[in-house]
Amino acid sequence: MAFNGKVILCVEGEPSPRIRLGEPLDLIWREHLVKTLDLVEIDRIRPISKKNILRMDPTARMSGSGAIAIDEMIAADIEKAKAAKTDVDAFVIAWDLQPPWDPKVAACRSDEVLSFYYGLANSNALPDDPWRIIAARRHHELSIRRQNPGAPAPRPRLVRGAIHAMCMEHTFESLLMVCETRIREILGVASLNVLDWPAWDQSARRPEDILQLAIKATRKLAKQRSRVARVIPGDMTTAKNDWGEYFLRKMIEDPDCLERLRDHPISRRMKAILAK
Predict the structure, then answer these.
(1) Is 58 exposed, middle or buried, given 0-12, 13-18 or 19+ CB atoms closer than 10 A?
(2) How large a percentage of the chain has pLDDT more than 70?
(3) Which of 104, 135, 154, 171 is the most exposed place for a label (fewest CB within 10 A)?
(4) How many structural domains compose the chain?
């Protein structure tokens, strides 16, 4: 049976109460990827940081303070919906498990995912039924799988009260690396020999760095500089979401690139959780 409840998708973004409709991050996740992958409708996008997730784990090493734990954030959204006499039925938490302060660590570590579900299952903020109960069930399923690596992976079920962790390997920008030729076309240098064009490594731990080099290399060409600047003034450091939305929108227009996008690990993971 198709899921027809309201889903909030939490993704890493600028710290603000919510992302407005039509903003680059909203277009990336709630429009482009939903339509491209034929996913269930996303009610809204909720910006988070890794600190929100780590705040649930008292043993996590983390500098700074002030971040609200993700379970408290979810509980607040549930209460707001209840007060407004509306519903929120499920959450998907999307983040890359490689922390920016330690790029050498392995991505998608199973202990972090287990810690995430353990924190939800033992939360003092979340309602017990069905939120904590389903989180505890998911933690148990993944714990069994960890003890028996050969066992079938427990399939995530999108039901009312579900909170799903969506691991991104390595970061969202790895989606944009599947079609180097298309990126060159988008930047207007498809047939040009661009000095300092970066080596295109689709398995790079930080694909955003390669895209940054590509933008900078393109802007060194006098004939291209004004054209690219008119599209997006910043770069992958100052306008990452703007560039990400622009690249993704243009890549979807190319049939071959579209198929590669659909077969990317992040896309497959999204479909496993959010398929209609």
Answers:
(1) exposed
(2) 87
(3) 104
(4) 2
